[in-house]
Amino acid sequence: RIVETPAGKAVQFNGVDDALFIDKHPLAGAKTFTFEAIIRPDGGAFAQRWFHLAEIDPATGKDSNARFLFELRVPPGSKQWYLDAFVNGPGYKQTLAFPEKLYPIGHWYAVAQTYDGKTYRSYVDGVLQGEADIAFVPQGPGHASIGVRMNRVNYVHGAILEARFTPRALTPDE
Fold first, then answer.
1. In this structure, what is the dihedral angle of CA atoms 156, 108, 97, 70, given to the nearest 10 degrees?
2. pLDDT for position 11
């Protein structure tokens, strides 16, 4: 559902069975990128895969395994979460998840994952969470899901205010 926030309208997800599906992969063809969003995690299940970009194999019309994911983890019994950023494609597979970097649920956060041609990085509120050098290959056209992974597992409990896709690696100041 759409909710009003001090920063404007956001989409709130119930963590059970609601999501948005879009017939476009906004980073298709990008050699470098920034994938960012403003999210308010509200607790819920441990694994929440809340933003998924997937390449479609043109020969089969089905998802290839090339994808970007934003996930969050809520440790059991905790009122905190940590970011899990993931990218996968031919010749590369990288998770950036750091359980020791916890944040309180119920607050708004700016999250980002970037690739500058050499290094894949993830951020929460402009603070580097982690990084790894990868041999990224641009992904082809596809689609996206917001609020759940493309195969409809691990729904998010929280709200998303905004998302932005840039075909270059932005700095935290940008």
1. 50
2. 98
Q: What's residue 164's pLDDT?
A: 98
Q: What's the pLDDT score for residue 78?
A: 92
Rounded to an integer, the average pLDDT of 137-151 is: 97
Its pTM surpasses 0.85: yes
